[in-house]
Protein backbone atom coordinates (compact mmCIF):
# COMPACT_ATOMS: atom_id res chain seq x y z
CA UNK A 1 0.00 0.00 0.00
CA UNK A 2 1.37 3.39 -1.02
CA UNK A 3 2.21 6.15 1.47
CA UNK A 4 0.87 9.62 0.63
CA UNK A 5 2.09 12.63 2.62
CA UNK A 6 0.55 16.07 2.30
CA UNK A 7 3.02 18.83 3.22
CA UNK A 8 1.92 22.32 4.25
CA UNK A 9 4.28 25.31 4.49
CA UNK A 10 3.23 28.75 5.79
CA UNK A 11 6.20 30.08 7.77
CA UNK A 12 6.50 33.46 6.05
CA UNK A 13 4.75 34.92 2.99
CA UNK A 14 4.40 31.87 0.72
CA UNK A 15 1.47 29.49 1.10
CA UNK A 16 2.49 26.08 -0.22
CA UNK A 17 1.17 22.52 -0.34
CA UNK A 18 2.79 19.41 -1.80
CA UNK A 19 2.09 15.69 -2.07
CA UNK A 20 4.75 12.97 -1.77
CA UNK A 21 4.02 9.35 -2.76
CA UNK A 22 6.51 6.78 -1.44
CA UNK A 23 9.29 9.38 -1.45
CA UNK A 24 8.47 10.83 -4.89
CA UNK A 25 6.99 14.28 -5.46
CA UNK A 26 3.61 14.39 -7.20
CA UNK A 27 2.80 18.10 -6.78
CA UNK A 28 4.20 21.28 -5.27
CA UNK A 29 1.98 24.37 -5.33
CA UNK A 30 3.18 27.77 -4.12
CA UNK A 31 1.09 30.94 -3.81
CA UNK A 32 3.30 34.01 -3.33
CA UNK A 33 2.21 37.36 -1.89
CA UNK A 34 3.04 40.46 -3.96
CA UNK A 35 1.39 42.79 -1.43
CA UNK A 36 4.62 43.16 0.59
CA UNK A 37 6.66 44.74 -2.22
CA UNK A 38 5.14 48.17 -1.55
CA UNK A 39 6.36 48.04 2.07
CA UNK A 40 9.93 46.91 1.41
CA UNK A 41 9.51 43.81 3.57
CA UNK A 42 7.02 41.24 4.83
CA UNK A 43 4.18 42.72 6.89
CA UNK A 44 3.16 39.94 9.33
CA UNK A 45 -0.51 40.92 9.59
CA UNK A 46 -0.94 41.08 5.81
CA UNK A 47 0.92 37.78 5.43
CA UNK A 48 -1.37 35.89 7.82
CA UNK A 49 -4.49 37.28 6.11
CA UNK A 50 -3.22 36.19 2.70
CA UNK A 51 -2.46 32.70 4.08
CA UNK A 52 -6.07 32.43 5.23
CA UNK A 53 -7.26 33.22 1.71
CA UNK A 54 -4.75 30.92 0.00
CA UNK A 55 -4.55 27.80 2.17
CA UNK A 56 -7.73 26.03 0.97
CA UNK A 57 -7.27 26.58 -2.80
CA UNK A 58 -3.55 25.75 -2.58
CA UNK A 59 -4.16 22.42 -0.79
CA UNK A 60 -7.03 21.63 -3.17
CA UNK A 61 -4.78 22.25 -6.19
CA UNK A 62 -1.94 20.14 -4.72
CA UNK A 63 -4.27 17.17 -4.26
CA UNK A 64 -5.80 17.69 -7.70
CA UNK A 65 -2.43 17.76 -9.48
CA UNK A 66 -1.27 14.74 -7.51
CA UNK A 67 -4.35 12.91 -8.78
CA UNK A 68 -5.50 11.75 -5.36
CA UNK A 69 -8.40 12.25 -2.98
CA UNK A 70 -7.82 13.58 0.53
CA UNK A 71 -9.09 10.28 1.92
CA UNK A 72 -6.03 8.54 0.43
CA UNK A 73 -3.61 10.59 2.56
CA UNK A 74 -1.49 8.65 5.07
CA UNK A 75 -0.46 11.68 7.14
CA UNK A 76 -0.17 15.46 7.09
CA UNK A 77 3.18 17.19 7.62
CA UNK A 78 3.29 20.89 8.46
CA UNK A 79 5.82 23.57 9.27
CA UNK A 80 5.62 24.08 13.02
CA UNK A 81 8.38 26.71 13.10
CA UNK A 82 10.42 28.81 13.07
CA UNK A 83 8.71 31.67 11.25
CA UNK A 84 6.13 34.43 11.64
CA UNK A 85 3.70 33.33 14.32
CA UNK A 86 0.58 34.60 12.55
CA UNK A 87 1.54 32.87 9.31
CA UNK A 88 2.48 29.64 11.06
CA UNK A 89 -0.82 29.49 12.93
CA UNK A 90 -2.79 29.42 9.68
CA UNK A 91 -0.91 26.37 8.40
CA UNK A 92 -0.74 24.65 11.78
CA UNK A 93 -4.48 25.10 12.44
CA UNK A 94 -5.43 23.91 8.97
CA UNK A 95 -3.18 20.84 9.21
CA UNK A 96 -4.59 19.90 12.61
CA UNK A 97 -8.19 20.34 11.48
CA UNK A 98 -7.69 18.27 8.32
CA UNK A 99 -5.79 15.52 10.15
CA UNK A 100 -8.54 15.29 12.78
CA UNK A 101 -11.28 15.14 10.15
CA UNK A 102 -9.46 12.34 8.28
CA UNK A 103 -8.30 10.57 11.46
CA UNK A 104 -4.69 10.37 10.22
CA UNK A 105 -1.36 11.17 11.94
CA UNK A 106 0.06 14.67 12.18
CA UNK A 107 3.78 15.30 11.62
CA UNK A 108 5.52 18.50 12.70
CA UNK A 109 8.52 19.69 10.66
CA UNK A 110 11.24 22.15 11.58
CA UNK A 111 11.45 24.59 8.67
CA UNK A 112 15.28 24.51 8.69
CA UNK A 113 15.37 20.71 8.63
CA UNK A 114 13.09 20.91 5.60
CA UNK A 115 15.59 23.09 3.74
CA UNK A 116 18.39 20.59 4.43
CA UNK A 117 16.32 17.57 3.36
CA UNK A 118 15.14 19.31 0.17
CA UNK A 119 18.10 17.51 -1.41
CA UNK A 120 16.18 14.24 -1.06
CA UNK A 121 13.17 15.34 -3.13
CA UNK A 122 12.83 13.02 -6.12
CA UNK A 123 10.59 13.18 -9.18
CA UNK A 124 9.87 10.07 -11.28
CA UNK A 125 11.99 10.10 -14.42
CA UNK A 126 14.17 12.93 -13.08
CA UNK A 127 16.05 11.08 -10.34
CA UNK A 128 19.13 12.83 -8.94
CA UNK A 129 22.06 11.42 -6.98
CA UNK A 130 21.40 11.92 -3.26
CA UNK A 131 23.95 13.05 -0.66
CA UNK A 132 25.51 10.25 1.40
CA UNK A 133 25.65 10.60 5.18
CA UNK A 134 27.46 12.30 6.74
CA UNK A 135 27.57 15.44 4.61
CA UNK A 136 27.95 19.15 5.24
CA UNK A 137 25.13 21.55 4.37
CA UNK A 138 25.51 25.32 4.12
CA UNK A 139 22.06 26.66 4.97
CA UNK A 140 21.76 30.30 3.88
CA UNK A 141 18.59 32.37 3.81
CA UNK A 142 17.16 35.70 4.86
CA UNK A 143 17.01 34.58 8.48
CA UNK A 144 19.69 31.89 8.81
CA UNK A 145 23.33 31.23 7.96
CA UNK A 146 24.49 27.88 9.31
CA UNK A 147 27.00 25.13 8.59
CA UNK A 148 25.33 21.83 9.47
CA UNK A 149 26.80 18.37 9.83
CA UNK A 150 24.05 16.07 8.58
CA UNK A 151 24.56 12.62 10.10
CA UNK A 152 21.14 11.19 9.14
CA UNK A 153 17.60 12.30 8.33
CA UNK A 154 16.94 12.96 12.00
CA UNK A 155 20.39 13.74 13.39
CA UNK A 156 21.98 17.08 12.54
CA UNK A 157 24.58 19.19 14.33
CA UNK A 158 25.14 22.91 13.85
CA UNK A 159 28.88 23.48 13.51
CA UNK A 160 28.67 27.22 12.98
CA UNK A 161 26.03 29.91 12.59
CA UNK A 162 25.65 33.66 12.37
CA UNK A 163 26.06 35.60 15.60
CA UNK A 164 24.11 38.58 14.21
CA UNK A 165 22.68 39.16 10.71
CA UNK A 166 22.18 36.32 8.26
CA UNK A 167 23.70 36.51 4.78
CA UNK A 168 20.35 37.02 3.05
CA UNK A 169 19.36 39.67 5.59
CA UNK A 170 22.58 41.62 4.94
CA UNK A 171 22.05 41.50 1.18
CA UNK A 172 18.41 42.63 1.52
CA UNK A 173 19.38 45.55 3.76
CA UNK A 174 22.19 46.69 1.45
CA UNK A 175 19.80 46.47 -1.49
CA UNK A 176 17.32 48.62 0.41
CA UNK A 177 20.02 51.24 1.13
CA UNK A 178 20.70 51.35 -2.62
CA UNK A 179 17.00 51.85 -3.29
CA UNK A 180 16.73 48.71 -5.41
CA UNK A 181 13.47 47.37 -4.01
CA UNK A 182 12.31 44.20 -2.27
CA UNK A 183 13.23 41.39 -2.11
CA UNK A 184 16.83 42.46 -2.57
CA UNK A 185 18.45 39.06 -3.13
CA UNK A 186 17.23 38.39 -6.70
CA UNK A 187 17.83 42.04 -7.69
CA UNK A 188 21.43 42.01 -6.42
CA UNK A 189 22.00 38.62 -8.09
CA UNK A 190 20.78 39.89 -11.47
CA UNK A 191 22.80 43.11 -11.29
CA UNK A 192 25.94 41.30 -10.11
CA UNK A 193 26.11 39.35 -13.37
CA UNK A 194 26.70 42.65 -15.19
CA UNK A 195 29.29 44.08 -12.78
CA UNK A 196 32.91 43.68 -11.71
CA UNK A 197 33.22 41.87 -8.35
CA UNK A 198 36.63 43.46 -7.72
CA UNK A 199 35.48 47.07 -8.16
CA UNK A 200 34.96 47.74 -4.45
CA UNK A 201 36.29 46.25 -1.21
CA UNK A 202 34.23 45.87 1.94
CA UNK A 203 35.32 44.70 5.37
CA UNK A 204 35.20 41.00 6.26
CA UNK A 205 34.69 39.78 9.84
CA UNK A 206 37.33 37.92 11.85
CA UNK A 207 35.20 35.55 13.90
CA UNK A 208 36.87 32.52 15.54
CA UNK A 209 35.70 28.99 14.80
CA UNK A 210 32.99 28.33 12.25
CA UNK A 211 30.53 31.07 13.20
CA UNK A 212 29.51 33.86 10.84
CA UNK A 213 28.94 37.60 11.19
CA UNK A 214 27.51 39.93 8.55
CA UNK A 215 26.69 43.07 10.54
CA UNK A 216 30.20 44.46 9.97
CA UNK A 217 29.89 44.00 6.22
CA UNK A 218 26.54 45.79 6.26
CA UNK A 219 28.02 48.71 8.23
CA UNK A 220 31.08 48.87 5.96
CA UNK A 221 28.82 48.96 2.88
CA UNK A 222 26.63 51.70 4.39
CA UNK A 223 29.52 53.96 5.44
CA UNK A 224 31.39 53.49 2.17
CA UNK A 225 28.27 54.34 0.21
CA UNK A 226 27.70 57.44 2.35
CA UNK A 227 31.22 58.72 1.64
CA UNK A 228 31.02 58.01 -2.09
CA UNK A 229 27.64 59.75 -2.39
CA UNK A 230 29.14 62.90 -0.81
CA UNK A 231 31.53 63.11 -3.77
CA UNK A 232 28.97 62.02 -6.36
CA UNK A 233 25.23 62.25 -5.51
CA UNK A 234 24.48 59.85 -8.38
CA UNK A 235 27.15 57.36 -7.34
CA UNK A 236 24.73 54.46 -6.89
CA UNK A 237 23.21 54.92 -10.32
CA UNK A 238 26.65 55.17 -11.94
CA UNK A 239 28.05 52.06 -10.19
CA UNK A 240 24.96 49.95 -9.48
CA UNK A 241 26.16 46.73 -11.14
CA UNK A 242 29.70 46.95 -9.73
CA UNK A 243 28.36 47.60 -6.22
CA UNK A 244 26.07 44.55 -6.47
CA UNK A 245 28.86 42.34 -7.82
CA UNK A 246 31.33 43.46 -5.11
CA UNK A 247 28.76 42.97 -2.35
CA UNK A 248 27.81 39.51 -3.61
CA UNK A 249 31.46 38.48 -3.97
CA UNK A 250 32.21 39.56 -0.39
CA UNK A 251 29.25 37.62 1.04
CA UNK A 252 30.17 34.51 -0.96
CA UNK A 253 33.83 34.74 0.16
CA UNK A 254 32.77 34.94 3.82
CA UNK A 255 30.43 31.94 3.43
CA UNK A 256 32.89 29.75 1.54
CA UNK A 257 35.88 30.48 3.78
CA UNK A 258 34.17 28.95 6.82
CA UNK A 259 32.72 26.11 4.77
CA UNK A 260 36.20 25.19 3.50
CA UNK A 261 37.42 25.23 7.08
CA UNK A 262 34.59 22.91 8.19
CA UNK A 263 35.15 20.49 5.30
CA UNK A 264 38.83 20.25 6.16
CA UNK A 265 38.26 19.99 9.92
CA UNK A 266 35.71 17.16 9.59
CA UNK A 267 37.34 15.58 6.52
CA UNK A 268 34.09 15.59 4.53
CA UNK A 269 33.95 15.86 0.75
CA UNK A 270 30.16 15.73 0.28
CA UNK A 271 28.91 19.30 0.57
CA UNK A 272 25.42 20.71 -0.06
CA UNK A 273 23.88 24.17 -0.06
CA UNK A 274 20.27 25.01 0.82
CA UNK A 275 17.97 27.93 1.63
CA UNK A 276 16.87 31.02 -0.29
CA UNK A 277 20.38 32.37 -0.87
CA UNK A 278 21.37 29.06 -2.52
CA UNK A 279 19.54 30.41 -5.60
CA UNK A 280 22.29 33.03 -5.92
CA UNK A 281 24.39 32.47 -9.03
CA UNK A 282 27.60 33.72 -7.42
CA UNK A 283 27.26 31.18 -4.60
CA UNK A 284 26.40 28.36 -7.02
CA UNK A 285 29.44 29.18 -9.14
CA UNK A 286 31.65 29.24 -6.03
CA UNK A 287 30.38 25.74 -5.14
CA UNK A 288 31.27 24.47 -8.60
CA UNK A 289 34.74 26.04 -8.40
CA UNK A 290 35.33 24.46 -4.97
CA UNK A 291 34.21 21.08 -6.30
CA UNK A 292 36.94 21.23 -8.95
CA UNK A 293 39.62 22.68 -6.68
CA UNK A 294 39.05 20.60 -3.53
CA UNK A 295 37.48 17.44 -4.94
CA UNK A 296 34.11 18.05 -3.29
CA UNK A 297 31.01 16.21 -4.43
CA UNK A 298 28.49 19.04 -4.37
CA UNK A 299 24.69 19.10 -4.16
CA UNK A 300 22.84 22.21 -5.35
CA UNK A 301 19.03 22.19 -5.19
CA UNK A 302 16.70 23.11 -8.04
CA UNK A 303 15.69 26.77 -7.91
CA UNK A 304 12.12 25.76 -7.01
CA UNK A 305 13.38 24.02 -3.84
CA UNK A 306 15.57 26.91 -2.62
CA UNK A 307 12.79 29.22 -1.45
CA UNK A 308 10.06 28.23 1.01
CA UNK A 309 8.07 25.33 -0.41
CA UNK A 310 5.96 22.43 0.84
CA UNK A 311 7.89 19.77 -1.09
CA UNK A 312 10.70 19.97 1.48
CA UNK A 313 8.14 19.73 4.30
CA UNK A 314 6.48 16.73 2.67
CA UNK A 315 9.74 14.80 2.12
CA UNK A 316 10.80 15.47 5.73
CA UNK A 317 7.35 14.32 6.83
CA UNK A 318 7.77 11.16 4.76
CA UNK A 319 10.99 10.20 6.55
CA UNK A 320 9.41 10.93 9.93
CA UNK A 321 6.36 8.88 8.95
CA UNK A 322 8.55 5.86 8.20
CA UNK A 323 9.98 6.04 11.73
CA UNK A 324 6.55 6.84 13.21
CA UNK A 325 7.59 10.24 14.59
CA UNK A 326 4.14 11.73 14.96
CA UNK A 327 3.02 14.96 16.59
CA UNK A 328 0.36 15.43 19.30
CA UNK A 329 -2.65 17.49 18.27
CA UNK A 330 -1.94 20.11 20.95
CA UNK A 331 1.65 20.86 19.81
CA UNK A 332 1.94 24.67 19.47
CA UNK A 333 3.69 26.58 16.71
CA UNK A 334 7.00 28.26 17.60
CA UNK A 335 8.41 31.42 16.06
CA UNK A 336 12.08 31.05 16.98
CA UNK A 337 14.21 27.97 17.49
CA UNK A 338 17.47 26.52 16.22
CA UNK A 339 17.72 23.43 14.07
CA UNK A 340 16.66 20.33 16.00
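^ C-alpha coordinates above, recovered residues below v
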Amino acid sequence: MSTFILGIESSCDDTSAAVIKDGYLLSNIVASQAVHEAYGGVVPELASRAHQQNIVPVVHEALKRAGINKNELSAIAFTRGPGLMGSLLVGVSFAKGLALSLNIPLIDVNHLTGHVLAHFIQVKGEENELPAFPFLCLLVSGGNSQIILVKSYNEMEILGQTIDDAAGEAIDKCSKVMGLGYPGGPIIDKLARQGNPKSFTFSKPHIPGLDYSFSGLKTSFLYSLRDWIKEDPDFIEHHKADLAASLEATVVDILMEKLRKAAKQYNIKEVAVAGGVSANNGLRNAFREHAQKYGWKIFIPKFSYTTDNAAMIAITGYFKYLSKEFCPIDAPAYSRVTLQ
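The radius of gyration is 20 Å.
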